[in-house]
Amino acid sequence: MEVRRGSLISAPAHQVWELVGDATLFARTAGPEHLWTFVVPGTPAGFVGERRVTLTRVRDDQVAATLVERIDMVHGRQVATRNLINGMELTTVVEERGPSSCQLTYVLRTAPADESLAAASLDARLARVSAYVAGEPPPSGRPEVPLPDPVDVQMGQVVVVGTVSAPPAEVWATVRTAGGALAELARPEAATVVTVPGTPAGEVGERICIVAFDPPFVQVLEVVAQDVGRSVTVRYLTAPTTAARTVALMPSALGTQVAITIDFVAPGAELADHERRMRRVAETFLRCYQS
């Protein structure tokens, strides 16, 4: 279904087009919630075919990531994008209404179940544009999402240990560059791994953004602990629930003993299912390091 929202904006059409047609500039209208936006290397910035990742702050310990592709554009008037993760298509139309005003319309194709949330999201976009062109601070807050009923949550942990036939220094290089995070992708060589600007590369506090397309995939990790050459702990900022992974290395007669620990939080009734899934994830990482 289509959700349509529009508003008369008190600014010339060319000014509003510059704002909504430039994803980097538009991202700034989110104010302090905006963290970073970047064009995926190898795609044409500002043209049809551009693929872009945008990161926004949900909470101090959680980041929302979008991966969109520009699928159509009429310069100065209209741009359409597709969210590669959820399939939603957003069309933005700017129509001149005089020398100092224009009509800004958003049309979002989404599932009927998401209609109310989509409408709130588009209303928030319009409010951000109006505030930005008026020189006012961005409206505070994100569209409200109904909170699920409280559930009993419990902490879980899985540990997988194996041996890699390589010295710790070689294994560390793979572990620390997040290469193992791509192990479950069909074409990991097509992925992009980048350090989020403003975070310390190679140190505690670094945030690592991983982007791939087979399947579409965006993940943000934060390094929360590190003993260089021996162990590193990362927290998953884009995960729906709290999760952290620690990889510890120990020299052994056969090369390197690798211990992978995943700590997670899950509803008590689903703890066993989460544990099985996390164990498969840990085993996948181990196979990646062993290959």
Structure characterization notes:
With 291 residues, the protein is α+β, with helices and mostly antiparallel strands. It has two domains: 2-133, START domain (Alpha-D-Glucose-1,6-Bisphosphate, Chain A, domain 4); 153-290, START domain (Alpha-D-Glucose-1,6-Bisphosphate, Chain A, domain 4), CATH 3.30.530.20. The protein is 21% helix and 43% strand. The protein has five helices and 14 strands. The strands form two sheets. A seven-stranded antiparallel beta sheet has the order 1-7-6-5-4-3-2. It has a seven-stranded antiparallel beta sheet with strand order 8-14-13-12-11-10-9, with helices on one face. A hairpin with a 3-residue loop joins strand 4 (62-74) and strand 5 (78-83). The termini are far apart.
Chain-averaged pLDDT: 88
What is the spatial order of strands in the main beta sheet?
A: 1-7-6-5-4-3-2
C-alpha Rg (nearest Å): 22 Å
Largest sheet: 7 strands, antiparallel
Taking pLDDT < 50 over at least 5 consecutive residues as the criterion, the unreliable ranges are none
Helix count equals 5
- CATH topology-level name of the largest domain: Alpha-D-Glucose-1,6-Bisphosphate, Chain A, domain 4
Name the CATH superfamily assignment of the largest domain.
START domain
Encode the helix/strand succession as letters. EHHEEEEEEHEHEEEEEEH
CATH A-level architecture of the largest domain: 2-Layer Sandwich
